Amino acid sequence: MTDFQALIRLLTESKVEFIVIGGAAATAHGSARLTLDLDIVYRRSSENMARLVSALNPLQPYLRGAPPGLPFDWSEETLFKGLNFTLTTNLGALDLLGEVTGGGNYEALLTYAVKLQLAGVECLCLGLRRLIEVKRAAGRPKDFDAIAELEVIDEERRAR
Amino acid sequence: MMNDNVNHTEADTDIDPVIEAYKKDVDRTLIRENLRLTVDERFQQLMKLQHFAEELRRAGKETESQH
Fold it and tell me: For residues A32 and B16, what is the distance between their CA atoms, to the nearest angstrom?
């Protein structure tokens, strides 16, 4: 099970610059759908990647789905050489994304981020309209249900 | 709390007939209930749902192993 609140609190308290996207962002906006992992877009500055590595180090991050025992060095160098990482941690499944299809990187998404008060901390979450646009841009049929739900959430919020 | 002001400044997207068709199957009562919750409560509910899904998977595996 993924402890979304604990992960977000840890990242925020470690001063990691990130934006919550994907299913967790949908939950924040009011989605009733089940999601199993926390997706974040992280800023790819060397300072931020150092903070991210340091924050997650105690959680023993490992590549999700990879056979146990493979050499995986959780380090700034690994993060720098890669872009997107699907990890399993002691607090659950965490996807670190350097950029997303149709949305770009942290800086590109920042304009569309909204502030969330969650688990006693303030973090950034992708705004509802941009979340819908990013999911549409991905063009995956499996997202049609999720996009439809997000559109309904938008309608309901506007009607309040 | 969400910062709703930011959301309202975002551009609308075009209407997609496929998504419009899917919208008919969305349970609006669940959405309205969720919108009454705080963001923290929404995540607590999600984690309860995760726990329940894991219990179902475990029960399913146990049933499979018995046959």
Answer: 22
